[in-house]
Each structure stands twice: as structure tokens, then as C-alpha cells.
Amino acid sequence: MDDLTFSAMMEMQRELWQAHRDKWTPLDPDHGRERLLYLFEETGEVISILKKKGNVAVVTDPAVRSHFLEEWSDVLMYLTDTLLCYGVTPQEIAQAYRSKHERNMNRDYTGEYRSKYED
After folding, report:
1. pLDDT of residue 56
2. In this model, does residue 115 exceed pLDDT 90?
3. Residue 86, φ and ψ in degrees, nearest 5
4. Alpha helices of 1-119 — where are they, by DSSP H?
5. Is the pTM for the entire model greater than 0.90?
């Protein structure tokens, strides 16, 4: 199996929304914040697995790992929905991600932290 692209993830979420469009809110800016809140709720479920089962179980127990990955998939789905609500294209998020990575590769995290939080 290969990796998912932003394009594929967005298309899958559009397809899922189409299948439930009579019950689900639209993928538009008015509902973007709602999708983001669901993303945080799902992130809490990931955290709950880590708290209840522990780090080692996520790596060694197939059932725990499966549940962990399922919840992470929910996080990614709501993240993708949020991007769709705001009309973000796969190309835009890919470019922003690459730019941020490049910036982070050259950052002085210690210096930035010091100047921000120390007197």
C-alpha cells in the first residue's frame, strides 16, 4: 500500500461528505470551526489511548495500535475537512508545509524561546 497524498485525502473526504450530505453540515467556512473542534475531540481520544494503554502498548499490542491508528485517522479526516471548509487546495497546503519545514530546518529554537520568554 502506498502513502496518501493531500489530494487523495481531500477527495476521500469530499466523497464521504457526499454520501452523508443530507445529515452533515456543509464543507464551508461557516462550519470550519466546528470541524476543528471535532479534530480536537478526536485528538483527545488519541491521548486517552496513550494514557490508558501506555506508549509501549501502542508499539507492541496490535489491537491497541489498530485503535490508536483509527483515532489518528479521525484526526486527519477532521483536519482535511477543516481545510476543505476554507477552500484550501492540496497545492496550497503542500507548499505551506514545505515552506514551514524549510524554515524550521534553519531555526534557532533555543534563541527564539529565550527572547520570547526570558527577561
Report:
1. 98
2. no
3. -100, 10
4. 6-19, 32-53, 55-60, 62-85, 90-105, 109-117
5. no
